Amino acid sequence: MLSSELWRSVGDVYEAILSHPFIIGLTTGELDEEKFRFYIAQDSLYLREYGKVLAIAAAKAEEREHSRFFAESLARSIKVEQEMHEAFMRAWGMRAEEMSPTNTAYTNFLLATAYSRPFHEVVGAILPCFWIYMEVGSTLKAKGSRNALFQKWIDTYGGEEYERGVKRAIEIVNELELGERERRATKEKFRMAAIYEYMFWDSAYRLERYPFRLTSPL
Predict the structure, then answer these.
(1) Residues 107-151: tens digit of each pLDDT
(2) Residue 145: what are its φ and ψ, rounded to 5°?
(3) CA proximity to 9, closest of 137, 131, 106, 157
(4) For the chain, which end, N or C, has fewer CB atoms within 10 Å of the first or last residue's CB respectively?
(5) b/e per residue, 109-132, with b = 16+ CB within 10 A?
(6) pLDDT of 9-29, one tens digit each?
(7) What gap in Å lies between CA 43 and CA 50, rounded to an integer?
(8) What is the rounded CA–CA span in Å between residue 111 and residue 134?
(9) Are 196 and 106 in contact (CB under 8 A)?
């Protein structure tokens, strides 16, 4: 199955994600909360752009059921994830304002793929965000966290409802009738997005920012 090929193609990336100090720190409770707040703010900005990508995927899908799935995924991502992010940020008294360089690069990649490439490649680019979060959430939920804040995040992505949606997305990629060239292109987009997922957590751990303000001081 294509999904098996896709997951095998990012085995090295996924292992690097699981061993990253940001992910490890979520379960040990030792992650600096400033880095977690930075991540939440960036993820809130990411989801705004990701929602556009899901909308384009819904429009490009030729199968009605595939279109409905991505449209419903858009609604769920806005409702569940954004509500969680906004609750965190309200409690902290902060707002998400400026994208990090990695966040900008990742969302630009997704949007460019969504606008310019065929449906199967768009699905390939979208899927790592669904799939990797499910796998990470499941792994971390089994371990738990000593930090209640981190545990709330883990419970969102390690839950059964989230898992059902991800498994349907995986089924969709297996339902696509693709030639060898199309499968290869889908795999390339999948791996690129998976690498960006690693870079996203890494950039939060480093509190990555542009070396200069994006708005002119003049």
Answers:
(1) 999 999 999 999 999 999 999 998 998 899 889 988 888 888 889
(2) -135, 145
(3) 131
(4) C
(5) bbbebbeebebbbbbbbbbbbbbb
(6) 999 999 999 999 999 999 999
(7) 10
(8) 22
(9) yes
Compute how many other C-beta atoms are within 10 angstroms of the C-beta atom of residue 25: 19
- Asked if 47 contacts 77 with a C-beta cutoff of 8 angstroms, the reply is yes
Q: Which helix (H) or strand (E) holds 31?
A: none
- 119-143 vs 11-18: helix axis angle to the nearest 10? 40
Cβ–Cβ under 8 Å, residues 17 and 197? yes
Cα torsion 6, 10, 14, 15: sign: positive
Convert the pLDDT of each residue in 73-86 to its tens digit.
Answer: 766 766 667 777 77
CA distances from 147 to 2, 36, 92, 141 (A): 38, 12, 16, 12
User: Max CA-CA distance within the chain?
Assistant: 56
Separation between Cα atoms, residue 63 and residue 200, nearest integer Å = 32
Lookup: tokens for 77? 């991502």
Please check whether residue 63 is in contact with residue 9, taking contact to mean a CB–CB distance below 8 angstroms.
no
**8 Å CB contact between 6 and 194:** no
Q: Nearest CA to 113 among 168, 57, 197, 165?
A: 57
Distance, in Å, from the CA atom of 102 to the CA atom of 105, rounded to the nearest integer, reads 5
